[in-house]
Design brief:
Oligomer: single chain
Low-confidence stretches: none
Distance between the termini: 40 Å
Helix content: 55-70%
Shape: rod-shaped
Number of strands: 2
Structural class: mainly alpha
Strand content: 5-15%
Order of helices and strands: HEEHHHH
């Protein structure tokens, strides 16, 4: 005679551990994704020469944060939309930062003001490329976090 014993309590405890911890792992995977996305946007900005001109390439200006339960956002400087889409011709007030920008780019402030006032600025899109590249990594990252929970039998 063969006797099989099953400890149902142990199985139930493991399943309950999975039920409790899989949502935590999904949250952790999404959090890692948003942190990496913010980092990649900063790195792409630096690679395109936006390293000393504002907050786009710094951790103070471009960062990921959790807004509410299940909602994250990537915070970027307000001027990113103008960098991405360009601007129509407009007036540039004389300020130290704009004078410094013109000087760093080898032109006088008057030349810079004239160019922007007559032509506007060209678009320099790059964030959509970074987002598309990182979205492809989201599913594997979350799946890896879930697999860690399953391998650890529901323990974090």
């Amino acid at each position: 005679m063969v006797r099989v014993e099953i400890n149902a309590n142990q199985v139930l405890n493991e399943v309950n551990g999975l039920n409790r911890n899989i949502p935590k792992r999904i949250t952790r995977g999404i959090n890692k994704f948003t942190e990496r996305l913010a980092n990649q946007i900063r790195l792409e900005a630096i690679a395109r020469g936006h390293r000393n001109t504002g907050f786009l390439s710094s951790e103070r200006g471009t960062f990921a944060r959790k807004v509410t339960k299940g909602v994250w956002e990537i915070k970027v400087p307000k001027y990113l939309i103008y960098l991405e889409k360009g601007t129509k011709p407009h007036f540039i007030p004389r300020k130290f930062i704009t004078e410094l920008w013109a000087k760093r780019h080898g032109m006088s402030f008057g030349t810079f003001r004239h160019i922007v006032a007559t032509r506007g600025t060209k678009p320099h899109p790059f964030t959509q490329h970074v987002i598309n590249r990182e979205i492809k990594r989201l599913k594997p990252d979350v799946e890896k976090e879930i697999q860690k929970t399953i391998n650890a039998k529901g323990k974090i």
